[in-house]
Specification:
Layout lengths: L1 E3 L2 E4 L4 E4 L2 E3 L3 H11 L6 E2 H8 L8 H14 L9 E4 L3 E4 L4 E2 L27 H7 L9 H15 L4 E6 L6 H12 L4 E6 L11 H12 L3 H11 L1 H6 L17 H11 L5 E6 L6 H12 L6 E7 L9 H11 L4 E4 L5 H12 L8 H9 L3 H13 L3 E6 L2 E6 L12 H12 L3 H10 L5 E3 H8 L3 H14 L3 E8 L5 E7 L2 H9 L3 H18 L8 H11 L2 H17 L3 H15 L4 H27 L1
Parallel strand pairs: 9-12, 9-13, 10-11, 11-12
Antiparallel strand pairs: 1-2, 1-8, 2-3, 3-4, 5-7, 6-7, 14-15, 16-18, 17-18
């Protein structure tokens, strides 16, 4: 515990205390205060603070000013007569209050686990991380009634003797497994269910991996004795491959696992009641498994047999025989496909209420989580866990009732990717080649949508070749897809693409070094200027965004002023004022001589624009 005057900084539990009461402090302002408190009495430059807190991420220096204002408000510190944080103009900050380690009893009102005593109704109780993870767990599905009805209809056809193959498709985390789990639970004892899991990397190493897992489950089920008898009689090699004793001929041919034998045995197993074979993540299956499913689908004899497979519509692996099989079976009406769409905001709200065990949610929570997750259930849960772990959401105890409440306005929450999701996305990136990763990183410099010409500019590559590579990625990856074609001023056209989720774009953006990002941003801005030669003002705002992200303040200011002038010509004076105010903020990063000159000119322009705005509003 670091103590200064009546404040205590609890670095273990990452919270601030004042006279025995916990003070609401978001993670980034806390991190800024902690760095200052741990380095008292010396100058901490802007660059040192930015490098310490955002080592791999580009952050505008102006963000420090915002955090300092927040901290001064919380500490009731006067910038003119600082008791705690002294600003050293153009250089940085210094924490001027004496700091000492608190080694005595804990501050009044705080327990050893970092939570406030429940007896205080005026303060918020913070739920510890361990308690958070035990409470925030996926509990069922929401808004999948139509998909469940579709599965029930398919199993009804199976019970009538029509063999069925059903693909449940959707992106990672969309809820394919949750839907299948719920469906299988509802079946109860009306059908036999055996499951096999396809594992990434096993497809080229072990034939029939998910099939053997499903057969092993059948043999170990309550009806396992019957399953073993049928396999021993009709497909003995398959039973022997499970490690169960059977009489198998010694010749090499006789020892091969024949798909036809297993098909017949499975049909026999489904004679008394429907048999459902569930294969998860079929996009990672070996070709032999896919060919077996093809054989099961095409056999003409009636059978109460269903293959229920989950898979992604596209995946980063090489082109898979599954794609051709699914297309052919759909064309011949030998299979059905149930595609899971993202959850609507109402469904996200329902999921949040279920996870928090609270019907009335904090205002704005559902909208915030829906926007960040884009309706992906896995992302919804991960973001919710992140909000509780960061103590943006806490539980308030009042009048004997415990409720989740919001501590920080959602607009002020830092838009970061939850650690678990970031790791999942990073793993997906590692499956791609270096060239493919570079393409996606360059695409992340723009926004969720990115044109091929901008990717080529960022990487200093040929546009046509880059577009071909982007097209290939769009065909293979489920989180990137081609979205259309743009006509460029020089008469050429360029395809553009979109990331399925903003979270993918954020991870790809942040994994680049600051220097590499800056270089790429500048190339894109310069390419924009060439594309729109003699009409640069029409894209000046976009150019400014890239220069600003690269830390090229001089060119960012120049572009923003050009954009403001263009707005004035369109009589959009309010927009021009906003752009000039933005230019003033950017000018703070320039050298002192250039800054003074630029600020003087910008203020004169801003004065004229504000007068025009005032005249317009007075009419």
């Amino acid at each position: 515990m670091k103590q200064f005057e009546s404040f205590g900084l609890d670095t273990s539990n990452q919270c601030l205390w004042h006279k025995g009461r916990q003070v609401a402090l978001p993670p980034k302002p806390f991190a800024v205060l902690r760095y200052l408190v741990e380095n008292p009495g010396r100058l901490i430059t802007h660059d040192e603070l930015l490098d310490a807190l955002w080592p791999e991420t580009y952050v505008q220096p102006q963000v420090l000013r915002t955090y300092m204002l927040d901290l001064r408000k919380i500490l009731k510190d006067d910038a003119g007569k600082p008791r705690f944080i002294q600003t050293l103009p153009k250089r940085g900050y210094c924490f001027v209050a004496p700091v000492k380690e608190w080694g005595g009893p804990e501050p009044a009102g705080m327990e050893r686990n970092g939570r406030e005593r429940a007896s205080s109704t005026a303060t918020l109780a913070v739920i510890p991380a361990a308690e958070t993870t035990s409470e925030i767990t996926v509990s069922g599905i929401v808004n999948r009634e139509e998909e469940l009805a579709g599965l029930k209809a398919q199993v009804g056809l199976t019970a009538s003797g029509q063999r069925r193959v059903v693909f449940v498709t959707g992106e990672a985390g969309i809820g394919k497994t949750a839907l299948v789990d719920h469906f299988c639970q509802q079946l109860g004892s009306s059908a036999s269910v055996a499951r096999g899991q396809c594992v990434e990397g096993f497809g080229g190493k072990e034939e029939y991996y998910p099939v053997m897992e499903a057969l092993s489950q059948l043999c170990a089920s309550p009806d396992g004795e019957r399953a073993c008898r049928i396999l021993a009689r009709m497909a003995p090699v398959w039973l022997a491959a499970l490690g169960r004793q059977t009489e198998v001929a010694a010749s090499p041919i006789a020892q091969q696992r024949m798909p036809g034998d297993l098909c017949a045995a499975l049909e026999e197993l489904a004679a008394e009641r429907p048999l459902i074979l569930v294969f998860e993540d079929l996009h990672w299956a070996d070709d032999s498994t896919v060919h077996l499913i093809s054989a099961l689908a095409r056999r003409r004899a009636p059978a109460q047999l269903m293959v229920l497979a989950t898979c992604r519509p596209r995946d980063g692996a090489t082109e898979h025989s599954l794609k051709g099989l699914k297309q052919d079976l759909l064309l011949r009406r030998l299979c059905a496909e149930i595609t899971l769409a993202p959850l609507a905001k109402k469904a996200v709200s329902e999921l949040l209420s279920r996870e928090l065990k609270q019907e009335a949610l904090p205002p704005g929570l559902a909208a915030f989580v829906h926007q960040r997750s884009e309706g992906n259930p896995l992302f919804v849960i991960a973001i919710l866990e992140h909000l509780t772990a960061q103590k943006f959401l806490v539980r308030e105890h009042s009048a004997g009732v415990t409720r989740w409440e919001q501590r920080v306005p959602f607009a002020e929450m830092e838009a970061s990717v939850p650690d678990g999701l970031a790791q999942m996305i990073e793993l997906e990136m590692e499956r791609l080649s270096d060239q493919e990763q570079r393409l996606l990183e360059a695409g992340s410099l723009m926004s969720v949508a990115f044109p091929a010409w901008a990717v080529a500019a960022a990487l200093d590559e040929d546009v046509a070749e880059t577009e071909e590579l982007c097209d290939a990625l769009g065909r293979r990856l489920y989180f990137v897809q081609r979205a259309g074609q743009d006509e460029l001023p020089d008469g050429t056209s360029s395809a553009f693409y979109v990331f399925a989720h903003e979270l993918y774009r954020e991870v790809l953006y942040r994994r680049q070094s600051t220097t590499r990002r800056a270089r790429r941003h500048i190339r894109v801005a310069e390419r924009l200027g060439k594309l729109f030669a003699e009409r640069e003002a029409t894209v000046a705002r976009e150019m400014a965004m890239h220069f600003e992200a690269a830390g090229d303040w001089r060119r960012a200011v120049h572009a923003l002023r050009a954009a403001a002038n263009h707005a004035q010509q369109r009589h959009a004076d309010a927009e021009a004022a906003e752009l000039l105010e933005h230019a003033l903020r950017n000018a703070e990063g320039m050298s002192e001589v250039d800054r003074r000159a630029a600020e003087s000119e910008i203020r004169n322009e801003l004065l004229k624009v504000r007068e025009a705005v005032a005249e317009g509003s007075g009419r």
